[in-house]
Amino acid sequence: MLNKFSAVILAAGYSGRxxxxxxxxxxxxNSTFAEKIVDxxxxxxxxxxxxxxxxxxxxxxEKKGCQMPENFQIALNDNPDLGRFYSLQKGLKLxxxxxxxxxxxxDNPFINAELVKSLLSYIDSADYITPSYHGKGGHPVxxxxxxxxxxxESDQYETNLKKFLLEFKMEKLEVEDNKILLNINTQTxxxxxxx
Length: 195
Fold this sequence. Notes:
By secondary structure, the protein is of the alpha/beta class. The protein has one domain (about 5-195): Spore Coat Polysaccharide Biosynthesis Protein SpsA, Chain A, CATH 3.90.550.10. It has helices spanning about 35-45, 55-65, 85-90, 115-120, 145-155, 160-165, 185-195; strands spanning about 5-10, 50-55, 70-75, 100-105, 130-135, 135, 140-145, 170-175. Strands 1, 2, 3, 4, 5, 6, 7 and 8 form an eight-stranded mixed beta sheet that branches. Helix 2 (about 55-65) links the parallel strand 2 and strand 3 (about 70-75). The longest helix has 11 residues, at about 35-45.
């Protein structure tokens, strides 16, 4: 049975080291990072897909005219300096509070629909599920409605997301794919992976 879920893509950082918004980097000749990640979440059956952007990112994204499904929406992070936790809050506010949410960072476009479905199949056994390669956690992360509500209700906007999640029961799904650990933060990182 397919688990119903929403998806949030965190992409509100300034991408200073990259020199361009990470969502706009090309994954292949047809798709940006944003389009690739949205496509995979859509293939996995997401009811809603939210991309969290800062103000200039939102303007650039709208100008580019990326093809997105009907259930796609942009959440504006008006204060990206507050970090990922605040971005996640902004994204969750557009999601159904009765459904689990899978979230990922824009700097790892190697998400795939099968992995998302596998993670969601464990959502009833823990508060959140993360893929793991040789014991090291990666993305995407799937959170239960319990974690969803705790994130939404928190007023500690600068909370470290990793530390916040330590308060909850985690399940790791071991996978044989080291790409779940990737963070593409600089042009050098990008060239290494997409040479």
